[in-house]
Design goal:
The protein is of the alpha+beta class. The protein is built from two helices and nine strands. It holds the Pfam family Sortase.
């Protein structure tokens, strides 16, 4: 076997392990919520079903990827969300380490993966609720194709993305490659992920995941984005460990 063949084979093995770890992490993450919902549940149901796909929406062309930069804030106008971003890794169990429930208004960015605006799929996770109230991504399933997501970055630019898919995937039939794989090679994309379906009190987990996909359609100086009153653009704490631990 040539050195190139060994390298290719090893790369495929690492990629396969990475996808498996990411899938396991998302499944475990859904269990990290209390079983006291006080009447709150994720406002979504379905099995790998698209949520609201208007046929008459004309999507803009994709923009060229931007230089690497870390995210500081994410704005989703249709949801009324302007949230700080914290770097996330994986915990000791291999689960994605989202912001703590005490900071459920923040969004976690998987820092070992793609930076938003660069080629590839940048991964963002957020809680749907806490034990007593809705959280940052409670209305994620209400996002519609053609709507805008903006990411304020630490190089002073805003990466603007256009939503092209909203999907609810049943956990028992979850396809990580379909959910998180790059749809078009070389394109800058992002995924917004939260829990969905119904909350199963017996297993203490949600029955599905909501995945919003978007692609880069523009960039602008950060000063063109409107910050919410009292908001900060301070990057969140670094996770305990960074690296290729998908």
């Amino acid at each position: 076997m040539s050195d190139r063949e060994r390298s290719t084979g090893s790369g495929r093995l690492v990629a396969g392990v990475a996808w498996a770890m990411l899938l396991l992490g998302l499944w475990l993450w859904g269990r990290e919520v209390t079983d006291v919902r006080q009447g709150i549940s994720a406002p979504t149901t379905g099995d790998a079903a698209a949520v609201g796909r208007p046929d008459d929406v004309e999507l803009p062309p994709s923009a060229e990827p931007l230089a690497d930069a870390r995210p500081r804030r994410i704005d989703i106008p249709s949801m009324g969300v302007q949230a700080s971003v914290v770097a996330s890794g994986l915990d000791e169990q291999g689960a994605i380490d989202p912001p703590p429930l005490s900071g459920a208004g923040a969004v976690g960015w998987y820092a070992a993966g793609t930076r938003p605006g660069a080629a590839g799929a940048a991964l963002f996770v957020g809680h749907v609720d806490t034990e007593s109230r809705p959280a940052v991504f409670y209305r994620l399933s209400a996002v519609r194709i053609g709507e805008t997501v903006r990411v304020v970055r630490d190089d002073g630019t805003v990466a603007e993305f256009t939503v092209d898919d909203v999907r609810v995937m049943d956990r028992d039939r979850f396809d990580a490659r379909q959910a998180y794989g790059v749809r078009r090679p070389g394109r800058a994309e992002l995924r917004l992920i939260t829990c969905g379906g119904t909350f199963d009190r017996a297993s203490r987990t949600y029955t599905a995941n909501v995945i919003v996909s978007a692609y880069l359609t523009g960039g602008a100086p950060a000063r063109s984005a409107t910050a919410p009153p009292g908001a900060t653009d301070r990057a969140g704490p670094r996770p305990r460990a960074l690296g290729p631990r998908e």
